[in-house]
Design goal:
Blueprint (H helix, E strand, L loop, with lengths): L2 H18 L8 E5 L5 H9 L4 E4 L2 H11 L4 E4 L8 H4 L5 E5 L2 H10 L4 E6 L16 H7 L6 E7 L8 H21 L8 E3 L6 H6 L4 E4 L1 H4 L4
């Protein structure tokens, strides 16, 4: 399938999910997750009109950046090792995986501009997933105040890979409630307006529960693995 055709189907599904809960489709940002596809497939996504690309490894990000430069907005969506921050920091607009103070210190130290960060939350408490426990997030964000090169634009989570809609909704609702709690604190460095949640298998549910950024790989660009 052409990316353009996949994108058309996804846009229809996004619009349907938004209509269901009386949201504007323009409130949703689609990130094409290109970590498992070629540079050519990523280029096809950009040519089809996708404005945001997400990579989860340094090597993939740098290779695709070399080809596409700043045509798309770049998101680093994978777990980020502290020692690799210096290698990717000049090429990303968003980091979706801030989950520890040592990483915040390194981002702050290496950045030449304010980096938009999502605090990653392991809502489902799965051992295989990175991120903070939900009850750790508020205190963690309070600790980020000194790092002026970081703006906490939102929260990110990965829901369990399941067809259990109730489980998915509970996961997304928990993140939405946590976002609202942080917004009420009115930290200038942590406006927390965004919710990065929802992937190929569950993005419609995520949108219904408040997602503002959805990260779609397989359903949009496929999977070369």
């Amino acid at each position: 399938m052409l990316v353009r055709d996949n994108l058309n189907e996804i846009q229809k599904a996004v619009e349907a999910a938004c209509q269901k809960v009386n949201r504007a489709k323009d409130d949703i940002t689609l990130i094409a997750v290109t970590k498992y596809v070629t540079i050519e497939r990523a280029e096809e996504a950009v040519e089809a009109g996708v404005l945001h690309l997400g990579e989860n490894r340094e090597e993939g990000l740098l290779a695709k950046y070399e080809a596409l430069k700043d045509k798309p907005v770049w998101h680093f969506i994978g777990s980020l090792q502290t020692r690799k921050v210096k290698n990717i920091i000049d090429y990303v607009d968003y980091i979706h995986s801030l989950d520890r103070i040592s990483l915040a210190k390194e981002i702050h130290k290496r950045a030449n501009k304010k980096i938009k960060c999502f605090v990653q939350v392991n809502v489902s408490q799965e051992e295989s997933k990175h991120g903070l426990a939900a009850n750790e997030v508020v205190d963690f964000i309070k600790e980020l105040a000194p790092f002026t090169n970081i703006e906490v634009v939102g929260l990110m989570t990965m829901a369990p890979f399941t067809e259990d809609e109730t489980m998915l909704r509970n996961c997304f609702r928990t993140l939405k409630e946590l976002q609202q709690t942080i917004q009420q604190l009115s930290f200038k460095y942590a406006p927390c307006r965004e919710l990065s949640m929802g992937m190929s298998n569950d993005y419609s549910i995520a949108i219904e529960e408040g997602a503002t950024m959805i990260r779609i790989g397989t359903a949009l660009v496929g999977n070369d693995k």
